Amino acid sequence: MDGSSLLEQYLERCDGQDDISTSPQLFTPMSPYDVDFPIQTTEDVLFGSQFNQPKELPTDFSSVDLSFLPDITQENKAQNLFEDGHEMQKELDGSTSNEDSSILTDESILAYPDATQATPEASGGCPPLTPIAPMTPVTPASESSGIVPQLQNIVSTVNLACKLDLKNIALRARNAEYNPKRFAAVIMRIREPRTTALIFSSGKMVCTGAKSEEQSRLAARKYARVVQKLGFPAKFLDFKIQNMVGSCDVMFPIRLEGLVLTHQQFSSYEPELFPGLIYRMVKPRIVLLIFVSGKVVLTGAKERSEIYEAFESIYPILKGFKKAS
Amino acid sequence: SLRDTVPRGDCETVCPNTPCFSEVAYSQSTGQKEQLSRCLQRGIRRVQDLCKVLQLPTVFEETAVSYVQRALQHPSFHLVSLEKKELLGGCCVFVTCRQHNWPLTMGTICSLLYAKQELFASVYLSLQKELELSVPALSLADLVKTHLNSFRLFQHAADIPAPFVENKEKVVARTMQIVELASETWLVTGRHPVPIVTAAAFLSWQSLQPATRLACTLARFCKLARVDLPPPAHLRLKELLEILLRMASQLAWLRVFNLDKKTVVKHIGDLLQHRIFLLKSAFCPEDEEEQQCRRPFASDSAVTGEEPISDGEIEQYLRGPEEIRAFRKAQAREVAGTERPRPW
Question: pTM of the full predicted structure?
Fold first, then answer.
């Protein structure tokens, strides 16, 4: 049974009617969301039983999956969410172990250890459900996906504008690491916002790991304060966001082989090297890592709007490669 | 004398009546052009050697050579290390093969070049990006044919038990079908292609004479066939068997047998014959695990970045004077320990 053709049948039926549908209870009041239910891969679960007997109105909704409705489910799952969110953070902040990811030279790209599984775990990459105005069931061409990528990592730089004695800093700071033979910078960490800084003797500093621009700025200021307290005349000049990484889940598997064929000029898909497809979007200039599981990583942004824009551009393309097994 | 052979330039006006040389271009005096042409010559030679070893059609050589020329003239490849330049020829052959759907794997070309896959990958990706080359995906169907060529089970030999020898065409045909099945059931996307072919070849071979071959493991099969057993092949095999079992559950006359991962092999022929129907009924969307959408962990979006930072918070990260003393002592001891000559 092909999910999309059933949906098309439903839509055709609705277009030809004055009333909205043969199963009004299901469609109109319960779903102020986009017809495609992008968060739901099993749209047939919703429509399937109805379509087998299109004339009959289901009186029993016990078989219908209503988990997309926020009010009902989220309170119950609040406890699990808390735990899952933390696990996700740990997963993402840790260094990648996938050897294939070494081909990606951008240090802020995160490779998911389980990205290749077709059944994604709830990884916290799911977006908040933003209610959209109720709409008639027309095939959405220009509507937004309803999915908002979550920011996972921000890389920023700042100039402390003074020469630093790294050995001295490593001696007198508890949260500092310094192995000059391995790397010519002090690695410093703070707990809140949970971040890492690379502090160079020139006074330049890189701050990584924050989940928002504001958090990155706050963290950078805290590192600068630590350096000040250690006796250096540190300033806080030219703070700049250098890179932003976001991720989300389109919630359906993607035929990467097909995507690389139709979007050759932007795509690189080499399963011998890396399980994901590397999509280099031109406008905005963002690199997307697209995995068969439907998970998408977006990187290269200087502003968060670029991440959102890039995802909205890729979403309709990905939908074209969505297939029921 | 030199004066006769070298044309005089402006030097004559500066220092008249003295023999001198005319201006020489930087690229000439440092041999930059010669270097480039030497790289190019090496690259071309590498391409020619590879094409010979791989027995590629002549048109491939022409294409690959043109890529090498374009690459070496591209500014981003000028300053690339010699080690990387050495791989350019191989990369260009690889790209050419892929563009002609000639199933050459990266593993094969790396072993021919004695190159680390990481390094090859970086050169390949740069080449693809800088020259804006479109490289189609590796065709699994073609890979099956070439990969099975290296399997040593199609002719009788002293170390191969007679019932293990199999007709090559049969194995190829069945392996293709199993690989196609794998592709349709999402086992291929994002995965390394060779282990899938290995697992499929094993199942195909086993299923052609299950009575005598069911006891043979994947590892032994690869050893007999004198092929490498790539680690993911075990996982691919497991996944394929799961798919086959799900399909078998849709065939009425097989349901009674209560098949398991071993016994389902006996029925692979049947399953492949009816695969189109079985895939539809075994994998309807209702069976897929429901994705439960969860709201992301609420981030503290209230952060402005300009919050005041308390002294106390910063001081927790600083060592006290005693701590510093203790740390210094420990450091000194460690250094002294490593410098002192050992008594033994």
Answer: 0.70
